[in-house]
Give the backbone structure.
Amino acid sequence: MEEQNHIASAFDRDLEKVQAQIMKMGGLVEDAIRQAAKSLETRDEPLAAQVRAADKVIDKLEAEINENAARVIALRAPTAIDLRMILSVMKISGNLERIGDYAKNMAKRTGVLSQMPPVGDGTAAIRRMARLAEEMLKDSLDAYIRRDAELALDVIARDEELDQMYNALFREFLTFMMEDPRNITACMHMHFIAKNVERMGDHCTSMAEQVVYLVTGARPDDARTKADKTSVKKPD
Amino acid sequence: MEEQNHIASAFDRDLEKVQAQIMKMGGLVEDAIRQAAKSLETRDEPLAAQVRAADKVIDKLEAEINENAARVIALRAPTAIDLRMILSVMKISGNLERIGDYAKNMAKRTGVLSQMPPVGDGTAAIRRMARLAEEMLKDSLDAYIRRDAELALDVIARDEELDQMYNALFREFLTFMMEDPRNITACMHMHFIAKNVERMGDHCTSMAEQVVYLVTGARPDDARTKADKTSVKKPD
């Protein structure tokens, strides 16, 4: 019995260490989102370059986390809920890596957009979207660490808000392009960025869904309607 | 020694079973790419609906594969190369799931694009891109099963070709939009689809990189330049 407790707590210590890395990675990804959106709105090319460079650190952390998680599995041979917990670490680091990639892709377009005249308040609207995505990310990670299913469900609900912001922007960009063809290139880039932020929300939702699954053992209602309407309704 | 052989072959049998599921999943994703591109070009809404429905089967298979892989880890406690092999199964099923999602998203736009007058040979060009992505997928899976690093490196090289096709299409869409604002909405949707196909290639590349890592123990040159130029050069 003592032996078993010993093994259990060794696993818990290992898990905590990997989860601490997840939190560190999450913090870097939050910074990346915020700075990418800021660099876009303020046309701050050095800040954008910083975001692009930081993505390498994020990618390295993901690889480390996966290796450490694999080491824990090999060493402790966890089963049942312990195995699910350690596997979720890999899933979540994968989600974080993708969100980091989207932030990097956003930052890549700062340079090209800075050379064009601004179109409406496009970049400010994108920054508002990014702020929402950043909060969703922070809360989904908090929900994960605290195993808080209620907070996770709240994150899932907020994704619809983000989708609606994206839909509204999509229509706005179409209008700008139709009004003046000189807006087309800038709007194509901004649409691309807005879609990336909307996808960040999807990854936060995926993390939150995992939390719900880990805590309750049940998947959140996957009949949940996707709210990107641009593909089904003809935007006017 | 005999005991060890026994354990090793039990693991190999388990691994083979999960890999067979990967191949089945890969076949479904190949079908999804081909049919989504076809439904787009021929404006075949029932075929698009079929692609969307098939995505649920793909998602279910991914969940099954991950559960089976976790079961193998818990049961056999593999280490070293065996552990890497079984973990790669999870990574690859994740890549396949995303590619399937992109095909589904493509099929979602068939309906809305069918209501608009065609723009140039946009959908035919997308279908050519999709054909290349489908071949990359097939070959990356073959490389995985046969542990063929050479074929995997060939897949990685082909991703640049796909990126160049995307870049050319991006410029073409810009031109169409500037020529006639009535083309804008259709081009926005087609650009979105082309970008999704380009991303399929990224996931094939990621699978191929894993094969190289599994076979040679070394990561393929990650200084490899990304060839989506639309974010760095101002398209003319």
Observations:
- The mean pLDDT of chain B is 88.
- Chain B has seven helices and no strands.
- The interface with chain A takes residues 66, 70, 73-74, 77-79, 83-84, 87, 90, 94, 105, 108-109, 111-112, 115-116, 170, 173-174, 177-178, 181, 184-185, 188-189, 191-192, 195, 230-235 of chain B (CB under 8 Å).
- Chain B has one domain: 2-216.
